[in-house]
């Protein structure tokens, strides 16, 4: 079963002048009890941050937090002692665990565009930890590139404490890819740009598909497209 969610259904938030954010799930001032999570995927925010601004230090706990930098550069500092920059094409994962705090700033004169995703961890009480990797995912061609995963069979990815995998794809016009899954798994897709058909359903920029009880996900690009695909456990026992 595929649930199509158009871009217009995203919740738009601009709580301060420097931030424009689209929430795909309940977050901050947006609360919809029917849209709290999809499997362990609890938060997916599509954030645009103005130059010379950003999120001052704030706390987190018991969450796996993943940031994908699509354009610009993040300046990161946290209470674990990490001070680093995360440029376009790099991926960051923080295990908030028993508690940590971080700040994410755009210190440049150019806008910053990121996706930030939160996953419910597969166990509580983990020690806070940090990982960052240059995966150059924005230059991939006509394949699904794994970026972050808790499935240890995958190599050269950022590890997270969730039985989930985040993939990225740049798919040229008329190219097709296939993702094999199982009815015990869920599949989430979000299109950054272009147009794709997902098992026959058309998705355009910023549209979503949430899929359950499928064996195969067939994806074809009507127009050259960039999108994220997330493989998720359907049952809480498997998070």
TrEMBL record:
Stated family: Belongs to the pirin family.
InterPro entries named in the record: Pirin, Pirin_N_dom, Quercetinase_C, RmlC-like_jellyroll, RmlC_Cupin_sf
Residue span(s) of domain Pirin N-terminal: 16-118
Upper taxonomic lineage: Bacteria, Pseudomonadati, Bacteroidota, Cytophagia, Cytophagales
Gene3D superfamilies registered for this protein in UniProt: Jelly Rolls
Name listed for the protein in its UniProt record: Pirin family protein
PANTHER family assigned to the protein according to its UniProt record, in alphabetical order: QUERCETIN 2,3-DIOXYGENASE (PTHR43212:SF3)
Start and end residues of each Quercetin 2,3-dioxygenase C-terminal cupin domain: 155-232
């Amino acid at each position: 079963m595929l649930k199509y969610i158009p871009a217009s259904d995203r919740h738009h938030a601009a709580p301060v002048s420097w931030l424009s954010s689209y929430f795909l799930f309940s977050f901050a001032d947006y609360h919809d009890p029917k849209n709290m999570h999809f499997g362990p995927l609890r938060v997916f925010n599509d954030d645009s941050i103005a130059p010379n601004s950003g999120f001052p230090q704030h706390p987190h706990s018991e969450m796996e937090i993943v940031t994908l930098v699509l354009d610009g550069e993040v300046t990161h500092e946290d209470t674990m002692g990490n001070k680093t920059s995360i440029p376009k094409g790099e991926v960051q994962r923080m295990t908030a665990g028993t508690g940590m705090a971080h700040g994410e700033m755009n210190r440049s004169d150019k806008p910053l565009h990121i996706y930030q995703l939160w996953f419910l961890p597969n166990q509580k009480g983990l020690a806070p930890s940090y990982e960052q990797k240059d995966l150059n995912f924005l230059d991939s061609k006509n394949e699904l590139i794994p970026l972050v995963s808790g499935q240890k069979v995958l190599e050269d990815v950022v590890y997270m404490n969730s039985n989930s995998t985040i993939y990225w794809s740049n798919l040229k016009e008329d190219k097709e890819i296939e993702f094999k899954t199982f009815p015990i798994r869920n599949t989430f897709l979000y299109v950054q740009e272009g147009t794709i058909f997902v098992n026959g359903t058309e998705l355009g920029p910023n549209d979503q598909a949430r899929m359950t009880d499928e064996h195969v996900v067939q994806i074809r690009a009507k127009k050259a497209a960039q999108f994220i695909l997330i493989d998720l456990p359907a049952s809480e026992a498997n998070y």
